[in-house]
Amino acid sequence: MEKLNYVYRWFKIISIPVIGIVMPLFFYDAGDYKRLIMWMIISIILTFVFWEFGQRVSHIINKKFPIDSLPAKHLIVMLIFFSVLAFSAILFVFLVNIIFGNVTSDYWAEMKGIHIVIILCTFFITALHESIFLFYKWKNSLFITEKLEKENVIAHYEALKNQVNPHFLFNSLGILSSLIQTNPKNALEYVDQFSKTYRYILDVSNKDTVSIKEEMEFINSYIYLHKIRFGDNLQFKSEINSNHLNKFILPLSLQIPVENAIKHNEISDKHPLKILVFEENNYVIIKNNLNLKYRREFSKSIGLRNLVDRYKFISNIQPKFYKQDNNFIAEIPIISGD
């Protein structure tokens, strides 16, 4: 709206002197300079007064009959008002001529040309005024639409990030419940390590990306947490080159595939779970052998789906999840910067 007022202001500054000075020239009698100057002054004053009055009334009309909700009524009322304005200008010119004794029996025939110009100028300015108003209203609506879409995207992305915390918490409490029944001593150590691990989740909740180094430090703590329960039956190995540790990925993007591997596979002396993490072709690869539990835990795949959805907001490259040679493989895209 501020830009619209700025345009109107300059439009007025330019239009009033141009119309006020140019119009009398069309009806200038050669040599009659005094009459020309008089009509130029009258024309500028008339244009200014009618401009200000017209702008204020059109503002009221815009409020009472908004063009976006009542377009037909808006245009009809605008046409009626500016028609009255045009004929008021003609009447004003007539009264000025009476004052200066310039009214003859042929006045209306003689002044027909200037009356037509007044009407045309009035409707031209009206059309231009409405065009500027409609253009900026359309531009403003586009801006608001884009802003709302952006805010909606951000809100949706934040909601996706917030899904991770409850998901991790729910699975961890399930493990704790199992430990309390089977090994209460380990359950106490699990709670202590869990509090340290969960702090990382809280710390990265406001970050869009984290370094691979940060995420790997968290994964090592996370694996240690589960080794309390599974011991050497859970085997974890990282082969990520130190040169890649300062690159970026999404927070908890490695933890989710690791968590799924632990959740859905049998982990025992007979069937140890082996998880390997390495970097290849600008992806961090998490690979684990498959030995799915006989009684599968119910899963809505919230974690993996959440990870895919979060990457859609950050990158054009999406995570990949697939089975190959009795292994489950997750490929997590590396992001170039934070």
Instruction: Count the E strands.
Output: 7
Unreliable stretches covering 5 or more consecutive residues: 155-160
Give the % helix.
55-70%
The CATH architecture classification of the largest domain is 2-Layer Sandwich
Q: Average pLDDT value?
A: 76
**In order across it, which strands form the biggest sheet?**
2-4-5-7-6
Briefly, what is this?
By secondary structure, the chain is an alpha+beta fold. It has helices at 2-25, 33-64, 71-99, 107-110, 112-182, 184-204, 212-230, 255-264, 302-314; strands at 210-211, 234-238, 248-249, 273-280, 283-289, 320-324, 327-333.
Keywords, please?
338 residues; alpha+beta; Heat Shock Protein 90; 2 domains; two-stranded antiparallel ribbon; 9 helices
Sequence-ordered SSE layout with sheet pairings:
Blueprint: H1 2-25, H2 33-64, H3 71-99, H4 107-110, H5 112-182, H6 184-204, E1 210-211, H7 212-230, E2 234-238, E3 248-249, H8 255-264, E4 273-280, E5 283-289, H9 302-314, E6 320-324, E7 327-333
Parallel strand pairs: 2-4
Antiparallel strand pairs: 1-3, 4-5, 5-7, 6-7
Helix pairs in contact: 1-2, 1-5, 2-3, 3-5, 5-6, 5-9, 6-7
